[in-house]
Design brief:
- Strands 1, 4, 5, 6 and 7 form a five-stranded mixed β-sheet that branches.
- Strand 6 and strand 7 form a beta hairpin.
- The longest helix is centred in the middle third of the chain and has 13 residues.
- With 159 residues, the chain is an alpha+beta fold.
């Protein structure tokens, strides 16, 4: 987080608006990829904050590769999430109001490998067996994805 780290040096832990992206990765068995975060020991989606000059799609692809070693061949836009429920206070005290662009990826390649600094574990979960300790800001995103997917007869579209 180069840009955010530089900003934090100037303003400390005060709340900021942090723009970023995350990815709901769906495997061939329609399970969701979650990562056990090193900072709060909760399961969440691969993703992170935007660097100056990046597009939201570039953020999603970069974070998916950095955190999981997966290359996205195609991303489908799900939604932009923001508002009071996306406030988050990191364990070290930094406060953010997240603005998150979420993408769905069912077309990817690479060997799953966790980033050693940010991710304790990577695992695919059935939507009926999601862990109880989901990362707070991503819980409504996952629930919206499941709700929207439930309205479709087919699996979430690829491509």
């Amino acid at each position: 987080m180069g840009y955010i780290s530089e900003l934090r040096e100037l303003i400390g832990t005060r709340p900021i608006i942090m723009v970023g992206a995350n990815v709901i990765v769906v495997d061939s068995e329609n399970r969701l990829l979650l990562q056990l975060r090193a900072d709060n020991n909760c399961w969440g989606l691969p993703g992170g904050s935007m660097e100056p000059g990046e597009s939201l799609q570039e953020v999603a692809k970069r974070e998916l590769y950095e955190e999981c070693n997966l290359v996205s061949n195609h991303l489908d836009f799900l939604n932009i999430f923001s508002g009071e429920q996306f406030y988050y206070k990191y364990p070290h005290g930094d406060e953010v109001f997240n603005v998150i662009a979420t993408f769905v990826c069912a077309d990817y390649e690479g060997e799953l490998r966790a980033d050693q600094d940010e991710v304790l574990s990577l695992q695919f979960f059935s939507i009926d067996e999601l862990p109880s300790n989901l990362n707070h800001p991503e819980t409504p995103i996952i629930h919206e994805f499941i709700h929207m997917r439930g309205r479709r007869i087919e699996n979430y579209p690829i491509g």
